Amino acid sequence: MKEFTFELPTKIYFGTNMTEDVLQKESAQFAGNVLIVTSGRSLITYGYLPKLISIIEHLPGNEKVVVYDKITQNPKLKEAQEAISLGKKEHVQSVVGFGGGSSIDAAKAVAAGIASDENIETFLLNGREPDGNVLPIIAIPTTAGTGSELSKGAILSSPAHHIKAGIRGKKLLPRMAVIDTSYTWTVPERITCETGFDVLAHAVESYVAVKSNAFSEMFSEKAIRIVGENLPKLIRNPGDHAAREQMCFASMIMGSNLANIGTCLPHRIQYAIGACTESSHAAGLIALYPSWIRHEFEVNPRKLNHVFQWLGYDPVNDAAQAEQLFSELKTEWKIPYSLSELGIRESMIEDLADQVTGNLANDRLSEKESIIRSILKESYLFRQ
């Protein structure tokens, strides 16, 4: 067994309908002025945001709750900068990311920006870790997918610079994560399926990644088994609260794998896709996966057959069968996306391939010549 290190510094609260009790117990985290960073819309409709504001306002030591609720599904640099300006103006002492992964990622960038004299743009464009203080971050996810509550990345898009990239560093790890599974009860079917696939992608990629180790692989196996059993249950019955609880748990433990192991080529390629479309992060991964799985099978057949078995399928004998399995899975889970459906034109593929950056070496497949172009071309039209 190879040597490894694994860190999990975030304090985790996991349960159902327990947010108010947790925040009262941790009221010291909310002293002074607090900034909530969120997308707002559905969270207002279901009453989640107004209730959270009220809870924090009534905590001992809290002076004021400030809200920035303009985060989009691909959070923009400009949105983070607006929230930073608001936070500085209101002299906030902590930041709450409330919503899906977009809101939590944005909250991390905002917490770094408020505490810094530099423009957050310099961290994003230059790939720098925040090197000064970062305000305390409290993550409260409302979807089961991204694992952002336990990861150290803040993924932002900048249309002006034609990039989607991450600000990363240990200081961006939330101080506390409150995973209240009741927030996911009202998530629509499409988002449930997309975010559920995101969990699976994190599990598969962190399992086959070069940096994987015995500890992370244990988490990957658990998450893959959970998704294989519970996402189909939610497609049949969106009101299955026990299945939603399981998906929240899988998403959470994959956040720790993201922080410690990272991902593979699909995530690197999706950032380029996300920079030029308004498609969701998960939708881009879904479009890329059958092709990536086929090529990955050529370098990792043993591990991918473990994945198929944990999903409840028989082992496959060749790469074409591996691709077919994931193509059928996309259809079964009602997410048969292709790159063309996401707004990518065939003429864009060459430029997209050139825009893919990041830690490509974490995927053994990255050594194969022109592999990124191949995956993009093969993912342009969905083949079943």
Describe this protein with a few key phrases:
single chain; 384 residues; alpha/beta; Rossmann fold; Dehydroquinate synthase-like, alpha domain; 2 domains; six-stranded parallel beta sheet; 49% helix; 12% strand; globular; oxidoreductase; ADH_Fe_C; metal ion binding
Give the arrangement of secondary structure elements:
Layout: E1 11-15, H1 19-25, E2 32-38, H2 41-45, H3 48-57, E3 62-68, H4 77-89, E4 94-99, H5 101-114, H6 120-126, E5 137-141, E6 153-158, E7 163-168, E8 176-180, H7 189-208, H8 214-236, H9 241-260, H10 265-276, H11 281-299, H12 301-310, H13 319-332, H14 349-354, H15 371-378
Parallel strand pairs: 1-8, 2-3, 2-4, 4-5, 5-8
Antiparallel strand pairs: 6-7
Helix pairs in contact: 4-5, 7-8, 7-9, 7-11, 8-9, 10-11, 11-12, 11-13, 11-15
InterPro entries: ADH_Fe/GldA, ADH_Fe_C, Alcohol_dehydrogenase_Fe
Protein name: Iron-containing alcohol dehydrogenase
GO molecular function, one term: metal ion binding
Largest sheet: 6 strands, parallel
| Number of E-type strands | 8
Count of domain modules: 2
Global Rg: 20 Å
Please give the alpha-carbon distance between the first and last residues. 39 Å
Portion in strands:
5-15%
| Distinct helical segment count | 15
> Which consecutive residue ranges, at least 5 long each, have pLDDT under 50?
none
Broad CATH class of the largest domain: Mainly Alpha
